[in-house]
Design brief:
Helices cover about 65% and strands about 0% of the residues. It has 2 domains: about 60 residues, Homeodomain-like (Arc Repressor Mutant, subunit A); about 140 residues, Tetracycline Repressor, domain 2. By secondary structure, it is an all-alpha fold. The longest helix has 21 residues. The chain is built from 10 helices and no strands. The chain is globular, with a radius of gyration of 20 Å.
């Protein structure tokens, strides 16, 4: 940890927010916005808490007050980025629309997330030798890919309970779905070989993937909907 990332000293101790001192949500949002951008551009080790505080227009004490430490802020930034594109409501089994429509909506949101400039930059950063350590990569995985997969797995469990899907290994099926959605384009983007496909091609890829998933796991009439 660099000197600029050191915890506040005793004289700078952060006063705990009591019942009458709610945290400023606007400042928290500003800190997260800066953290999402800087971590995706420079990686975990390339960003300091002082830098985040300065660009967010707050004190370092305020950053620590909201997030505790750099690792917590990193995890929160990754989680917030995922929730922007894939909010919890996306996985609610009670939403209007049939199963195929919901799977297609989830697939579109996931594809948009993983092919975004920020996501591609972060994935490249995580793959570079010497970028952080295994613990940082674990933080990234748990706050991002694992969180999304877990939410989708719960969605699948609800659909299995309703008799709309027949899935024996739900975690494996969730992983298969997202790996299929990434497809060839995601790897091309990681390699810097592709600037994006026409919307029509992307939509065909998403619909074909949902069709494949439904043929594999759909039960009865739901597979034909």
């Amino acid at each position: 940890m660099s000197a600029t990332d050191s915890q506040p000293t005793a004289s700078e101790a952060v006063k705990p927010a009591g019942p009458g001192r709610p945290k400023d949500l606007g400042k928290r949002a500003a800190i997260l916005d800066v953290a999402k951008r800087l971590f995706s551009q420079n990686g975990f080790d390339g960003v300091s808490m002082d830098q985040i505080a300065a660009e967010a227009g707050v004190s370092k004490l305020t950053v620590y007050s909201h997030f505790g430490d750099k690792e917590s802020l990193f995890s929160s930034a990754i989680r917030a980025k995922c929730e922007e594109q894939m909010p919890a409501a996306l996985f609610l089994a009670g939403l209007e629309g049939n199963l195929r429509e919901q799977l297609t909506t989830i697939a579109r949101a996931f594809f948009t997330l993983v092919t975004s400039e920020e996501s591609i930059a972060m994935h490249r950063m995580m793959m570079m030798p010497g970028t952080g350590d295994s613990h940082v990569r674990e933080l990234f995985w748990q706050a991002g890919p694992q969180q999304v997969k877990d939410a989708f797995a719960e969605f699948l469990r609800a659909r299995v309970a309703r008799g709309e899907l027949q899935v024996t290994d739900i975690d494996r099926a969730a992983s298969q779905f997202f790996c299929l959605i990434k497809g060839e384009m995601h790897m091309q983007l990681l390699c810097g070989m592709c600037c994006g496909s026409p919307v029509s091609d992307t939509e065909c890829h998403i619909e074909a993937t949902v069709d494949l998933f439904m043929r594999a796991y759909g039960s009865g009439g739901s597979a034909a909907e």
